[in-house]
Write a structure and sequence with these properties.
The chain is an all-alpha fold. The protein has five helices and no strands. The chain is flat.
Length: about 120
């Protein structure tokens, strides 16, 4: 039990440090820095932030989905993912798309649980 908790906290801290570095590093570097040029718009490293978020989301969501059984348990996940994808496409704003997806997930979860 203690080992699982320790692993969980190590993973959370590692994700926090990586996320912080991807956000703060551009502000900590000089404007003439070679690293800053590599992190800027024309670089392949631009996808690093979204890729980290997808990796974190996958690590959190996949174990939950694998434990599901029955259509009623899949509906909240499917509804939330579909709402997020459609909102991102329609609105062009990832933040709003995530909010819409979470709201739809919660609503479908409540509706399925209310039956």
């Amino acid at each position: 039990m203690l080992n699982n908790q320790l692993d969980m906290w190590v993973a959370i801290i590692a994700m926090a440090v990586i996320t912080y570095l991807t956000r703060a590093l551009p502000f900590l570097l000089s404007s003439r820095s070679r690293w800053l040029r590599r992190l800027s718009e024309g670089s392949s490293l631009v996808a690093l932030g979204p890729a980290l978020l997808v990796g974190i989301a996958t690590a959190v969501i996949v174990p939950d989905v694998m434990a599901l059984s029955g259509v009623s348990q899949y509906l909240p996940y499917a509804g939330g993912l579909l709402a997020t994808a459609l909102s991102a496409r329609r609105l062009g704003n990832a933040g709003l798309a995530v909010i819409v997806g979470v709201v739809v997930y919660g609503a479908v979860l409540w509706l399925v649980g209310a039956r």
